[in-house]
Please model this.
Amino acid sequence: MNNAIKIMSFAEYRNLPGVNFSSLKHIAESPLAYQWHLTQPDEPTPAMLFGSAVHCAILEPDQFEKRYAVRPEGLDLRKTADKEHWAELSAGKIALTITDAEKIAAMREGLYRNHEIRRLLEAPGTFEATIQWTGPGGRLCKGRLDKYLDDGTIFGLKTTSKFDQRQFQSAAWQMFYHAQWAWYYWGIGELGLPRGEEMYEAVVLSSGPFDAAIYAVTEPIIEAGRVEYEGWLRTLAQCERTGEWPGRYPDIVEFLPPQWAQDSELGVDYFVNQVGGIL
Model:
């Protein structure tokens, strides 16, 4: 393994100095939102916790039983003996229901059923690879790749409830996946490590039939993502210089009718008059 690739726990990664993508992307909303999320970290949602469990089961299977406890079927926590038994089984671990565990097993099977995903998962490389590099102005940056293959391929894994290609691509763009991919691609390049012309993102459906697909992330997508994160870094640098962290709408905003009213053949005035001036 290259010395520039580090292996560490997620807790250690969080404490590592540097701007990470998950924080930086909040500048897309506003500098104020970026500052808020730095000081008031989001509580993980059930979907995020489940996604982390899937990642662990697929990317770090040897760690799964150390981090997660599956509540045995038939355990009645109203009974003292069962409650004490469960407390012993789950001590220091994240609790999962049997339903969750079965879904995770089905998602793993779905991923390995796809031959291209299986090939990338089984290829030589490093899972949960941490990288740290220096960006513009000496700013430390960091990232945690799902897998960095020995041949320079960057591989990612996402769970989704929107498996249809058009729906997934739309949702992914709104969540700035393209900028996240570009961020990792940049970091690998800054460290002088080999990187392929394409990146790959595996996507697995979080409900039956637990289908899976693999997306090739090509140069135009990476370039679009680069434009995004470079703009965010410039905004961050400006806010740090001025000490000002404006919200999303710092100036007076003109109120406009909703698009459906503008598009209607009846015209905006019709809708305004129908509800006494309220759209």
About this structure: Residues 51 and 179 are 20 Å apart (CA to CA). The beta strands are 68-70, 94-96, 125-134, 140-149, 154-160, 199-205, 212-217. The chain has a mean pLDDT of 89. The first helix runs from residue 10 to 15.
